[in-house]
């Protein structure tokens, strides 16, 4: 039979699965000899049994009996004893902190008799009756489901009758009256009397805590925080100590370091003559913890001593709840404290310097998400003259200020003149890319956190507020209106805060992130503040430990140069289709409209030198590092005008329609696809449109030869997209090899180029053994692989129903953000294994967006990939996580995991 109850002297901090965070840490503090009121913990396992069967597990009652008996004998009084009652608190405590989500009942053990005993012992009638009414109130609400407002109304009623301004003005008799009223409320609402038997009170409170695990707000919180639904909560039964016994009593919270900045010092708040719930209720203002030195020096000194003990013991910043009862300090709770991103980096390095943790542990104490937060610009402070217009979704953090513009070309135009602009749209689509690149930030009135605007902005590291539904955006007229009728026209300055979702009219000053300036090389570690120094140290260690390399997804020399400054080890994905936009679109049109080989050749010949120039620039920026160039992937109709617009234009023109427009419309209609994602794209284009891939390969080879002649060290890798069968790859590879040989012969310079493929279709993953025979490398295109594995068309599903899927808990996070390990991940593992079996030196990477996602980076490490590739802005995050993944894997292998930081 499992053990369901642990005395505080029996547990320890590593038993969180069983005792919950609070119980495990109470036990740890007890065993450290710190002043914890005695008590015991009922395990989460008992809760799980209760939730599954609706009954308490057999044997629990007996165990509770014996632990209660032991507690009573230690305290020298019995639960609810009439002349001197032992009172207990019954508190929830799950493995992960769920602040305010579950229930607590204090003062259990009071009834019509023991209230007199308490009054006599405390020498304070008022205190005793106040405690009693608190019990009935909490018990009524929590255990018997009585509407809490009824109790509050009764208090207000009595206060009004007495002319009392606050609870503090109420007398013992007032509380006595409230006890009577509260009992009547319970009777009427719950259809039963408030139980006077202390043990019955305790047992019912325990069940109520168990039940509160499934309260709607707790379910919602778990979903948001991704806490598993089946953990259950432990229950802590702790002898009561009272902070409300007079001016020599009080309650407070303390942090061993500043959770906001990480600075060392004394941080916290104290409230004299109060219980914890008074602090939360904000009835009186707390004083800074340092004031306690003046109020009660002995307790203050003891608290500081305990804080130091706890920090050294947990080897981390702790937060603490304490109570002082008549000059005696009691510890009610401690845990590894939550902190801001900046504090996390600073504290990790402080603890390293103190010798409390090693460098591996310092790297484990910070996360890629925290680093990402440090990299976004932020608003310095609010200034007068700035109106908040609305709040949308905080889609991509950062702060951006600029003139509102409503179209992509206008954004490009104004930005080209050196103006800062914010692109405002109802929603964005791939045509808005240039405008998004040019803008300081993006604001949309529609779409959620996985909308096009949000996803693309995050990838670029650009501030984005999306789904600001209160804004009425009129793109045609170039204005939007906000609640209250404020109209913002093109050119009006707005500020958007991607961290909060706030949108302002006017300019809020913005600060550059020093961490980005450091990565950019504008700020050296030596010049930086302690945060920059901390980031520098942690990154250095992560790089030293990482096995995965980090490459960049980029397709311009500028981005390549930035990626390099950010620490990229090459380019993992250069999407060449971006090179076919703008003025060059015309050439693609000519290619599509060409009626014979000659026309086609002319169009390709015109494109080739432009492509060559593109590649030369990128090879130069990435000199000496690999550059993986993916041949054109999207369906060609993406480069043609919109079918509806063109049809209307031709129809309206009637007989006078332009011949070219007619031809174009014919081509657009011919190429139109129901499901372009699954249509004529990727390698299929290369096989169906003669000369297209060949032109690109020739441009790559010639650019590489030119760079080599100029003394450079180009390292091209040619990547074929959307391969599903080895035969497709073989055909393209043979053609490419022929062209590479031709260029080598003609130029007299032989630059070797690897030829490999993306794995982005399930069939490719499942036949990876065959494909590897023809591929020198694989790069997992997990954007498409996720689409095709789930059968999701990303552009359609994200906006249509992903928010509902998230709410329903079908998945905790979008599979387009974090790699779906069970499905997509399994395909990757199969492909890695079979690919390497066929070709042991097969080089493996990932270039879908997951390459910059922390959890996915850890997966890639475990799956044995050689590199991850992500957008330039995500490179530091991926570097950090690559190091952390290696450290975690090494610790798991050696069984030396320290379990240091478990805060969520
Ligand atoms: C992918 O599919 O993961 C990929 C990188 O290709 P794209 O996003 O360009 O389709
Ligand atoms: Mg793809």
TrEMBL record:
<dbReference type="InterPro" id="IPR010121">
    <property type="entry name" value="Pyruvate_phosphate_dikinase"/>
</dbReference>
<keyword id="KW-0547">Nucleotide-binding</keyword>
<feature type="binding site">
    <location>
        <position position="784"/>
    </location>
    <ligand>
        <name>substrate</name>
    </ligand>
</feature>
<dbReference type="InterPro" id="IPR013815">
    <property type="entry name" value="ATP_grasp_subdomain_1"/>
</dbReference>
<dbReference type="GO" id="GO:0046872">
    <property type="term" value="F:metal ion binding"/>
</dbReference>
<keyword id="KW-0418">Kinase</keyword>
<protein>
    <recommendedName>
        <fullName>Pyruvate, phosphate dikinase</fullName>
        <ecNumber>2.7.9.1</ecNumber>
    </recommendedName>
</protein>
<dbReference type="InterPro" id="IPR002192">
    <property type="entry name" value="PPDK_AMP/ATP-bd"/>
</dbReference>
<dbReference type="InterPro" id="IPR018274">
    <property type="entry name" value="PEP_util_AS"/>
</dbReference>
<feature type="domain" description="Pyruvate phosphate dikinase AMP/ATP-binding">
    <location>
        <begin position="60"/>
        <end position="285"/>
    </location>
</feature>
<comment type="similarity">
    <text>Belongs to the PEP-utilizing enzyme family.</text>
</comment>
<feature type="binding site">
    <location>
        <position position="784"/>
    </location>
    <ligand>
        <name>Mg(2+)</name>
    </ligand>
</feature>
<dbReference type="InterPro" id="IPR000121">
    <property type="entry name" value="PEP_util_C"/>
</dbReference>
<feature type="binding site">
    <location>
        <position position="781"/>
    </location>
    <ligand>
        <name>substrate</name>
    </ligand>
</feature>
<feature type="binding site">
    <location>
        <position position="782"/>
    </location>
    <ligand>
        <name>substrate</name>
    </ligand>
</feature>
<feature type="binding site">
    <location>
        <position position="760"/>
    </location>
    <ligand>
        <name>Mg(2+)</name>
    </ligand>
</feature>
<dbReference type="Pfam" id="PF01326">
    <property type="entry name" value="PPDK_N"/>
</dbReference>
<feature type="binding site">
    <location>
        <position position="575"/>
    </location>
    <ligand>
        <name>substrate</name>
    </ligand>
</feature>
<keyword id="KW-0808">Transferase</keyword>
<feature type="active site" description="Tele-phosphohistidine intermediate">
    <location>
        <position position="452"/>
    </location>
</feature>
<keyword id="KW-0670">Pyruvate</keyword>
<dbReference type="Pfam" id="PF02896">
    <property type="entry name" value="PEP-utilizers_C"/>
</dbReference>
<feature type="binding site">
    <location>
        <position position="630"/>
    </location>
    <ligand>
        <name>substrate</name>
    </ligand>
</feature>
<feature type="domain" description="PEP-utilising enzyme C-terminal">
    <location>
        <begin position="541"/>
        <end position="883"/>
    </location>
</feature>
<dbReference type="Pfam" id="PF00391">
    <property type="entry name" value="PEP-utilizers"/>
</dbReference>
<dbReference type="InterPro" id="IPR015813">
    <property type="entry name" value="Pyrv/PenolPyrv_kinase-like_dom"/>
</dbReference>
<dbReference type="GO" id="GO:0005524">
    <property type="term" value="F:ATP binding"/>
</dbReference>
<keyword id="KW-0067">ATP-binding</keyword>
<feature type="binding site">
    <location>
        <position position="783"/>
    </location>
    <ligand>
        <name>substrate</name>
    </ligand>
</feature>
<feature type="domain" description="Pyruvate phosphate dikinase AMP/ATP-binding">
    <location>
        <begin position="293"/>
        <end position="343"/>
    </location>
</feature>
<keyword id="KW-0460">Magnesium</keyword>
<feature type="active site" description="Proton donor">
    <location>
        <position position="847"/>
    </location>
</feature>
<dbReference type="InterPro" id="IPR036637">
    <property type="entry name" value="Phosphohistidine_dom_sf"/>
</dbReference>
<feature type="domain" description="PEP-utilising enzyme mobile">
    <location>
        <begin position="419"/>
        <end position="501"/>
    </location>
</feature>
<dbReference type="InterPro" id="IPR040442">
    <property type="entry name" value="Pyrv_kinase-like_dom_sf"/>
</dbReference>
<dbReference type="GO" id="GO:0016301">
    <property type="term" value="F:kinase activity"/>
</dbReference>
<dbReference type="GO" id="GO:0050242">
    <property type="term" value="F:pyruvate, phosphate dikinase activity"/>
</dbReference>
<keyword id="KW-0479">Metal-binding</keyword>
<dbReference type="InterPro" id="IPR008279">
    <property type="entry name" value="PEP-util_enz_mobile_dom"/>
</dbReference>
<feature type="binding site">
    <location>
        <position position="760"/>
    </location>
    <ligand>
        <name>substrate</name>
    </ligand>
</feature>
């Amino acid at each position: 039979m499992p053990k369901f109850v642990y005395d505080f002297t029996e547990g320890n901090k590593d038993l969180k699965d069983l005792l919950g965070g609070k119980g495990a840490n109470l036990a740890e503090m007890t065993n450290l000899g710190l002043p914890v009121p005695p008590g015991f913990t009922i395990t989460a396992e008992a809760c799980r049994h209760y939730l599954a069967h609706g009954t308490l597990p057999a044997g629990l009652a007996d165990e509770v009996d014996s632990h209660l008996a032991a507690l009573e004998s230690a305290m020298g009084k019995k639960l609810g004893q009439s002349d001197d009652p032992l009172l207990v608190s019954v508190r929830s405590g799950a493995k992960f902190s769920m602040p305010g989500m579950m229930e607590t009942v204090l003062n259990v053990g009071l009834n019509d008799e023991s209230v007199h005993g308490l009054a006599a012992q405390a020498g304070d009638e008022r205190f005793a009756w106040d405690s009693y009414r608190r019990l009935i109130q909490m018990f009524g609400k929590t255990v018997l489901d009585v509407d809490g407002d009824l109790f509050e109304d009764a208090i207000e009623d009595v206060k009004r009758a007495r002319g009392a301004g606050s609870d503090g003005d109420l007398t013992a008799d007032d509380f006595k009256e409230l006890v009577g009223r509260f009992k009547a409320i319970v009777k009427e609402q719950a259809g039963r009397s408030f139980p006077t038997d202390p043990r019955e009170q305790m047992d019912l409170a325990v069940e109520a805590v168990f039940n509160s695990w499934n309260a709607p707000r707790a379910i919602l919180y778990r979903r948001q925080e991704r806490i598993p639904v089946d953990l259950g909560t432990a229950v802590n039964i702790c002898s009561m100590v009272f902070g409300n016994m007079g001016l020599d009593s009080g309650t407070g919270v303390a942090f061993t370091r500043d959770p906001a900045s990480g600075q060392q010092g004394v941080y916290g708040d104290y409230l004299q003559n109060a219980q914890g719930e008074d602090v939360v209720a904000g009835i009186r203002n707390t004083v800074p913890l340092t004031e306690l030195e003046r109020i009660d020096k002995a307790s203050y000194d003891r608290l500081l001593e305990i804080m130091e003990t706890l920090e050294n013991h947990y080897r981390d910043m702790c937060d603490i709840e304490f109570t002082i009862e008549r000059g005696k300090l009691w510890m009610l709770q401690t845990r590894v404290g939550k902190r801001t991103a900046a504090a996390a980096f600073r504290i990790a390095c402080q603890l390293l310097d103190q010798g409390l943790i090693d460098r591996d542990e310092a790297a484990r104490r910070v996360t890629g998400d925290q680093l990402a937060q440090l990299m976004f610009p932020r608003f310095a402070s609010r200034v007068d003259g700035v109106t908040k217009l609305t709040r949308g979704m905080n889609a991509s953090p950062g702060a951006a200020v600029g003139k509102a513009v409503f179209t992509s070309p206008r954004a490009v135009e104004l930005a080209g003149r050196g103006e800062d602009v914010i692109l405002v749209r109802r929603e964005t689509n791939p045509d808005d890319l240039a405008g998004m690149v040019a803008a300081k930030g993006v604001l949309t009135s529609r779409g959620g956190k996985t909308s096009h605007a949000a996803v693309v902005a995050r990838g670029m590291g650009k501030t984005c507020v999306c789904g600001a539904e209160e804004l009425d955006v009129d793109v045609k007229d170039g204005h939007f209106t906000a609640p209250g009728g404020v109209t913002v026209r093109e050119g009006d300055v707005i500020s958007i805060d991607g961290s909060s979702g706030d949108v302002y009219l006017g300019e809020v000053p913005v600060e550059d992130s020093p961490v980005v300036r450091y990565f950019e090389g504008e700020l050296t570690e030596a010049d930086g503040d302690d945060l920059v120094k901390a980031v520098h140290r942690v990154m250095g260690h992560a790089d030293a430990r990482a096995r995965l390399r980090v490459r960049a997804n980029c397709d311009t020399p500028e981005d390549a140069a930035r990626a390099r400054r950010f620490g990229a080890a090459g380019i993992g994905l250069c999407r060449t289709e971006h090179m076919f936009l703008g003025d060059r679109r015309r050439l693609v049109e000519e290619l599509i409209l060409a009626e014979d080989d000659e026309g086609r050749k002319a169009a390709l010949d015109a494109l080739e030198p432009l492509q060559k120039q593109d590649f030369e620039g990128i090879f130069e920026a990435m000199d000496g590092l690999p550059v993986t160039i993916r041949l054109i992937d999207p369906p060609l109709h993406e480069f043609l005008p919109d079918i509806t617009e063109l049809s209307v234009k031709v129809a309206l023109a009637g007989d006078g329609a332009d011949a070219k427009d007619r031809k174009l419309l014919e081509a657009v209609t011919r190429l139109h696809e129901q499901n372009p994602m699954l249509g004529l794209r990727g390698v299929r284009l290369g096989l169906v449109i003669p000369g297209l891939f060949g032109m690109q390969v020739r441009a790559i080879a010639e650019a590489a030869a030119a760079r080599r002649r100029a003394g450079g060290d180009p390292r091209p890798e040619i990547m074929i997209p959307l391969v599903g069968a080895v035969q497709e790859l073989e055909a393209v590879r043979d053609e490419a090899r022929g062209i590479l040989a031709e260029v080598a012969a003609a130029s007299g310079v032989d630059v070797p180029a690897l030829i490999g493929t993306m794995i982005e279709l399930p069939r490719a993953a499942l036949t990876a053994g065959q494909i590897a025979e023809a591929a020198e490398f694989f790069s997992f295109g997990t954007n498409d692989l996720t689409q095709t594995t789930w059968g999701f068309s990303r552009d359609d599903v994200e906006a249509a129903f992903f928010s509902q899927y998230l709410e329903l808990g079908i998945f905790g996070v979008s599979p387009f953000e974090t790699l779906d390990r069970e499905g997509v991940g399994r395909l990757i593992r199969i492909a890695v294994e079979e690919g390497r079996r066929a070709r042991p030196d097969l080089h493996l990477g990932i270039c879908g967006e997951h390459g910059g996602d922390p959890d996915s980076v850890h997966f890639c490490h475990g799956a044995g990939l050689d590199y991850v590739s992500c957008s330039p802005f995500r490179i530091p995050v991926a570097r950090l996580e690559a190091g952390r993944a290696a450290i975690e894997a090494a610790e798991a292998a050696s069984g030396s995991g320290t379990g240091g930081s478990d805060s969520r």
